């Protein structure tokens, strides 16, 4: 590839502060307007604010080696970083000089007019890419943390395999059944994956199994006939979820599902069962979710920080109250003595949490970096559960293939300590199911 000059948009830096070193030997142009925009986000207490602070620190270190106006090299074999403004002569009349995006585009147009090399604007902003295309300016999207090509290719934790009829008989007669490539037709299975064995003689003859590796026999999925904390699995995917949630050998669980699929409810039920049930395994149930949108939006709510968090945490409290049989007094007692903690994600960071069952809800709004930060908080004898719906993302800096939930599903699918299932069916109500599917 011929040498290029990449003009980097604000959205790229706020998504990944390390992006500046990921363009090989090509030069990096940072519009002065981008520096101004980054400064507006540096006090945020989420991953966007963290990225803003980190990129500013990085640029400040570069200043020790030269000036950004004249350019600072990133090292041998790498490009040079410049901070540049724009020439008003190169901003089209249709663009607004008061609009930050338009000024960034004007910087790229200025660089293109004064350079012999190809100039490419890099952004995560779809609208910005459309405007660039309309102006004939080359523009590319930034997808550094994309873990799958499309959301449809995301690992779902379940596979159906057609097997000889005798294998299903052996399975139900408790004979050891091993799955190998001859049975899967070359399909690669992953640790802690769920399998539906279907007879090649009769498609209605099936068995639900748990795969724990090619060197171990598959086992039957655990059936909780009396339910978990009063909650019965309504479909096979929920049964798979309960199997993992109650399995002490799987300390990291991820569950993806549309609205009303039961992902939060079964997670909370399993958490209550193992924290305040008869055979408790953990001392605390900690439930958290990202505050989205974050930043200035939270400032418009009245009260102190705890008051401001209530609207975001109410869905969690509603589910807990439902599971407690609307026994508000008992729930408040558990919360007061810290057996149950309902907290905003901001308070989870920086802690080391042991002997706890942790549920992080709405994880589709987290970045890959943020979810990694959360996992590294897990201490001894702690189970952590991530739930979310990758089709309902409110964070403008991630999408279905780059969000933290998709990231942890794909990156952890081969690990013995983790398990995943995607819930397919809506179980909240017929109205919710149809709405989630067609609206």
Protein described:
With 439 residues, the protein is an alpha/beta fold. Helices cover 33% and strands 18% of the residues. It contains 14 helices and 16 strands. The strands form three sheets. It has a six-stranded mixed β-sheet with strand order 3-4-2-1-5-6. Strand 3 and strand 4 (80-84) form a beta hairpin. The longest helix is centred in the last third of the chain and has 19 residues, at 305-323. The chain is globular and about 80 Å long. It starts with a strand and ends with a helix. 40% of the residues are buried.
Provide a brief overview of the structure.
The protein has 439 residues and is α/β, with parallel strands linked by helices. The chain has helices spanning 10-15, 32-39, 47-62, 100-114, 126-135, 165-172, 181-184, 236-245, 263-275, 305-323, 328-336, 368-375, 404-411, 430-438; strands spanning 4-8, 27-31, 72-73, 80-84, 118-123, 139-141, 158-163, 193-199, 206-211, 219-220, 252-257, 284-289, 340-344, 356-360, 383-388, 418-423. It contains 14 helices and 16 strands.
